[in-house]
Automatic annotation (TrEMBL):
Residues of the EF-hand domain: 1-28, 29-62
SUPFAM superfamilies in alphabetical order: Dimeric alpha+beta barrel, EF-hand
Species assigned in the record: Microcebus murinus (Gray mouse lemur)
Keyword Metal-binding: yes
Coiled coil: none
Record GO biological process: negative regulation of G protein-coupled receptor internalization; positive regulation of adenosine receptor signaling pathway; positive regulation of ERK1 and ERK2 cascade; positive regulation of glutamate receptor signaling pathway; positive regulation of protein localization to membrane; regulation of amyloid precursor protein biosynthetic process
InterPro entries for this protein: ABM_dom, Dimeric_a/b-barrel, EF-hand-dom_pair, EF_Hand_1_Ca_BS, EF_hand_dom, NECAB1/2/3
GO molecular function: A2A adenosine receptor binding; calcium ion binding; type 5 metabotropic glutamate receptor binding
Transmembrane segments: none
Name of this protein: N-terminal EF-hand calcium binding protein 2
């Protein structure tokens, strides 16, 4: 965790690195700064590994066993991958069949656990958003209001999943299964309704009319990223932070990430007000942090393309 947060690899966390990594859309900058100074017990204006560990160890509870088990699991999976490569290349058809079965079953079991955890994360985010709405306190982070919507377009379902036709949902506990199924049905119904109305996922009509027609084009930026399998977890953590951080930019109308069927290729789409705003975004801390992680996790250079698209495309189909 400390290594992922320490973007410049100097062995200590500055306030900027701390705020960038731990920003969750709930604590504002001042609250994160206060927390930083609480953890910085020796008042050096930097947090080292020991200070970070000392703070979280006091609050881990049952998560101490969970994280320890994940470390063991990570080691076991990497060891199994080496064994799989050796056995599969020189094995018989039956040996290869057994290897494929065990590998797929491992993936299913891990995905089952992941689904339960992600359901809990979504429930907490939705509950947090509801509480803030009830208190009438605007957000300064990822759950900031977008043109009358309580959350950014991706917040209700920010999970990055490969869409494989015919693939069933992994098995989970009965309670979480029912909760997850209800959420999936609600999202499916919403999507069907929008498709029937020929509506898009985001609405820029009000924003564009406010500009009185001066902004007739948007800058569409597309990034295609191929991730090293062993670095997938680190990349996903960074990508989720990048989505939240970029969505909070006032000149970014929409951002979405798609995970392709191979499980290791991702495509990010961003709609920016102008090309200049996008170039300015490239110098932002959130973009620099994501670029730092991409250097370590991608199997090949990213493929980036951009094009100006008519802004009216974002509001067609309303009649």
């Amino acid at each position: 965790i400390f290594r992922r947060a320490d973007k410049n690899d100097d062995g200590k966390l500055s306030l900027e690195e701390f705020q960038l990594f731990f920003a969750d859309g709930v604590l504002n900058e001042k609250e994160l700064e206060d927390l930083f100074h609480t953890i910085d017990s020796d008042n050096t204006n930097h947090v080292d590994t020991k200070e970070l560990c000392d703070y979280f160890v006091e609050h881990m509870g049952d998560y101490e066993d969970v994280l320890a088990s994940l470390e063991t699991l990570n080691h076991s999976v990497l060891k199994a991958m080496g064994y799989t490569k050796k056995v599969y290349e020189g094995g018989s058809h039956v040996d290869q069949f057994v290897t494929r079965f065990l590998l797929k079953e491992t993936a299913t079991q891990i995905q089952s656990l992941l689904s339960s955890v992600e359901s809990a994360v979504e429930a907490i985010e939705e509950q947090t958003c509801q509480i803030r709405q009830n208190h009438g306190k605007p957000s300064h982070g990822a759950t900031e209001t977008w043109y009358g919507s309580p959350t950014p377009p991706y917040a209700a379902n920010h999970k990055l999943m490969a869409t494989e036709p015919g693939k069933s949902l992994p098995s989970v506990t009965e309670d979480s299964k029912e909760e997850g199924l209800e959420a999936q049905i609600s999202r499916l119904a919403e999507l069907i309704g929008r498709l029937e109305n020929k509506a898009l996922w985001f609405d820029l009509q009000q924003r564009l009319s406010d500009d009185e027609g001066t902004n007739m084009h948007l800058q569409l930026v597309r990034q295609e990223l191929a991730v090293c399998p062993e670095q997938l977890s680190e990349f996903l953590d960074s990508l989720r932070q990048y989505l939240r951080g970029t969505a909070g930019a006032g000149t970014c109308f929409h951002i979405a990430a798609v995970r392709l069927a191979d499980g290791f290729t991702f495509v990010i789409y961003e709609f920016w007000e102008t090309e200049e705003e996008w170039k300015r975004h490239l110098q932002s801390p959130v973009c620099k942090a994501f670029r730092h992680v991409k250097v370590d996790t991608l199997s090949q250079p990213e493929a980036l393309s951009r094009i100006s698209v008519p802004a009216v495309w974002c509001t067609v189909g309303r009649d």
